[in-house]
Amino acid sequence: MQFEHNHHSVIQALDNIVSAVQLSFNQCQSDVYWLSVDFRMLIAATGVKHTEAHKAAVYIVDSLVEQLKPNESLLISSFYFSFPHSKAFSPYKSEVQTGVFGAMLLAQYPQHRVQQPFYSFLVFGHAYPSLTQNYIAKSTGPDSIFEWVINNNTQLICVGHHYVKSLSSIHHAEHCADVDYRYVKTFSGSLLLQNSKEQHIETQFYVRDLDTCDFSSLTHTGDRAFREAAVIESQLLSTLKRPLLIHSINLLCTHEMMLQDLNSGNNRYVDYFGPMKQEHEVITGKVADKLYTKELNALINTQSC
Hints:
The protein has helices at residues 7-27, 39-46, 53-66, 83-86, 100-108, 145-151, 169-177, 220-228, 251-264, 285-304; strands spanning 32-37, 73-77, 88-89, 121-125, 155-159, 182-191, 199-208, 215-218, 232-237, 244-250, 270-273. By secondary structure, the protein is of the alpha/beta class. It comes from Pseudoalteromonas maricaloris.
């Protein structure tokens, strides 16, 4: 692949990121990897021009897929949350609402998207095409896409952002624990597949009770517990134009920890806030950004000592 601007330095930077992600793959005990990338941070770190961002996304994924073993799979989130309003989902055309990384890859690999109206993934390697061939009605809970993700011992790899911002498996744990601030809601609409008629579908999503819950997520205590249990690893990439932090976290182990805590009624690891409950320890997106920057700077300072 040829980049028109700063080809050699861009390729070297992208190769450094690919090598670091591959190292995370090799160091974990999993065959399924979910890669999440903050592409704004990646562009700043590599010098890729915005006009060539699509090339960079494809280069990273193609490089990683080439190195997958026969039994390994790679997932990229391509979530879509407008189904309740649009009442239609097309794996090929429904926009990706979880960042430009998945959106750019969908344009290149539309046939690799899972048929799930909310939590769809792009799938590469061993799980393709089997995971993309059948409609999956449930987003979380029994017989859901996230049950597949958890049961297959998936390793989440986050590049350039705090892992909590991609930890949607929290809601699967909440569903399994039957928390009192969320409930299952069924939505109806159409599934639009290529070269076929519309199919009527029903799908389930574990929605918030709006009178009770504004937001739910991991807590600071949960983050500390994950780190103490060594189910999360941090890796500093300092050879780029701007340093990046990579988080690698085992979703099966963290699911078991969150579920046990939720079932005990302690809500130490996962909690919510709402009209009658203050934010307290819940890690929001803004808090996660601050935690990422704090950890990144701490690792830079440690390395320079």
